[in-house]
Here is the input.
Amino acid sequence: MDSTTIVLALALGNLAICAALFFFEQPRQDGAGARPAALTNWGWSRQMQGAGWLLLAIGGANVLPERLALPVAYGLVIAGVAWEAGALWERAGGRRWRRIATPALVLAVGAFLLCYWIDEIGLRALAASLILGAFYLSAAAALARGWGQASMLRRFLALATALLALVVGLRGALVLLAPSGWGWMSNELLRQLYSGALYLLMLLGAFGWLLLGREDAQDQLARLEVVDPLTDCANRRGFFQMLAPWMSLARRPGPPTALVLFDLDQFKRVNDSYGHPAGDVVLRTLVEVCKRQLRDSDQLGRLVGVEFAILLPRTGPEDAAMVAERMRAAIAATKVKTERAMISLTASFGVTAIRADDSSVTLLARADEALRSAKAGGRNRVELAPPALAVPAEA
Here is the structure.
C-alpha cells in the first residue's frame, strides 16, 4: 500500500471518528448530560489529527503555500497526538496535564520546524517520528497508571500502545543512521512498518477509548448496586454482602462481632422545614462524622431512609456500646451549616452481637428492638440488647 493511501486512510479514519463523536452524548440546552472533559479533549485531538492527515493526503499546496503546507499539516498531527495523550492522562486522574503538555507541544513543534527548514528529508523524518513516538509513549504511560489495579484491557492497551510507539519512534532514527537501509530492513519496509503502526494506533486509540468507556460504565453500575450514592457508604444490599461472612464466622469459636443500628432522631422535620437539599447536606455531614469514629475494618451501611447499620468485627457488645456512645456524642455536638440554617440532630443506637444461632433476620430484629428501646427511652441514647439466656445444664 502506497504512502498516499495510508495517509488518506488515517485522515478519513480520524474524521469518521469525529463524525460519530458529534452524535454521542450531545449536551442538551439546559446543560444536562454534558460530556466529560476528557472526552471533549479526545474529540479535539481526533479533529486535529484528521485535519493534519487530510492536508497531507490531498496535497497541502492546493490549500496553503507549498512552504507552509507540510509544517502546518505535521503541526496539526503532532498537536492531535499530544492532546490525545493529555485526554488519557485526564481520564486517569491527571487534571493538570496541560501544564506539561502545552510547553512540551510548543517545544516539539518548534523542533520539527527547525529540522524541516534545515533538512527537508532526514531530519524531518527523524523529528516527526521521534516526536510522535514520544507522545504515544506518554499515552501508554497514562494507560499504565495504577498498573496494580488496572484491568486486563487497560494493561493490553498500554503495552500495545507502547510497542507501536517504539516502532514509530525507531523509524526516523534508523532512516537517519542508515539512509540506504539496515541489513534486511530496507527503507520501504521501514516505511510500511511506520505507516502500519500509525494506522494501528488510530484504531487502537478509538476502539480502546470505546471499550474503556464501556468498562467504566459497567464498574459504575456494579458499584451503584452496593453503594449508596448520597452518603458513599454501603447500601442495604452491599451491607448484607459484607455481613454474610461474619455471620458464618460467628458459628466458630473466636472473638465476637458486633452490630450497631442507629437512626437519626426526628430527621423528617429537617426535610419539612428546610427542604430535601438541606436534608441531604445534613445526612452526608453526619455520615462523615460517624466514619471518623470507626476503624478501617469497621463497615457502615445505609439500610433505609436515615437508618444505618455498623458492623464491628472482633468487637464485643460492651466495646461496641462504647463506640456507639462516641458516635452519639459526636453527632449531638455537630452543627451542620446549610444555606438556610444551622441544624443540629441527635441519634439513637441499638447494639448487639452476632450469635452462633443467628440468621440475618434474627440479628436485625434484636438490634432493631434495642433501637426502639432507645427511642422509647427518650432518644439520643445507646441501648444494649439483652444477652442470650444461658442454657441450663442437665442434671
User: Anything to note?
Assistant: Residues 236-384 form a domain with the Alpha-Beta Plaits fold (CATH 3.30.70.270). The beta strands are 258-264, 299-304, 307-312, 335-337, 342-344, 347-353, 382-384. The chain has two domains: 3-225, 236-384. The two ends are 96 Å apart (CA to CA).
